[in-house]
Specification:
The protein is mainly beta. 0% of the residues lie in helices and 49% in strands. It has strands spanning 2-8, 13-20, 44-52, 56-63. Strand 3 and strand 4 (56-63) form a beta hairpin. The termini are far apart.
Length: 65
């Protein structure tokens, strides 16, 4: 089970990019700057969270327009 999510600086969920079972390996994912409803979010700082049963990684990203 893997989840890859984007949240804003207030900790609110903005977009879920991946949620589900994934085989082992290397993958890529692209965020188009839209929220879960399909609206463009403003430029700024966001956090990307990758979670699985074995690990949890969180990193800061900057969305520029």
């Amino acid at each position: 089970m893997v989840s890859l999510r984007v949240s804003n600086v207030a900790g609110q969920a903005v977009r879920t990019l991946i949620y589900g079972s994934m085989p082992g390996g290397t993958f890529t994912s692209t965020w188009d700057g839209r929220n879960n409803r399909g609206y463009m979010v403003p430029a700024g700082i966001y956090f990307l969270s990758l979670e699985s049963r074995q690990a949890r990684v969180r990193t800061k990203i900057v969305l520029m327009r």
